[in-house]
Write a structure and sequence with these properties.
By secondary structure, the protein is mainly α. The chain is built from four helices and no strands. It is 47% helix and 0% strand.
Length: 114
């Protein structure tokens, strides 16, 4: 398990620029955990949890991707159209830039048989 993964509520709180008691920690945890799960799914870490780790850590782009995804989902869920990004349609799975960032870290294309 990577030492910098999965992210926590405090990571999303920083990304949203919230104060410590500004919002519900359990709700922040839900969003950041879901974003980390999505990044794992895109990169194949849901099947191979140590995939893409370097010296027990994931590259910083994974952290950035999860934070950006969670931030988008939080904003769209909590604020609806009022604060929705003009470049990302409501209900977007992950921002296009996140897909681009993670494209260098594909899942395995084959399954090794024992």
């Amino acid at each position: 398990m990577a030492t910098n993964w999965p992210l926590t509520a405090s990571d999303l709180r920083k990304a949203l620029q919230y104060d410590v008691n500004q919002d519900d920690a359990a709700e922040l945890t839900l969003f950041i955990t879901a974003a980390c799960d999505k990044v794992d799914q895109i990169t194949g870490r849901d099947v191979d949890p140590s995939r893409h780790e370097i010296n027990g850590r994931l590259p910083a782009i994974f952290v950035l991707a999860a934070r950006e995804t969670a931030k988008l989902w939080w904003t769209q869920s909590k604020n609806g159209q009022r604060n929705a990004s003009e470049s990302v349609p409501m209900g977007a799975d992950v921002p296009a830039r996140v897909s681009g960032w993670l494209s260098s870290f594909p899942p395995r294309l084959f399954v090794e048989e024992p």
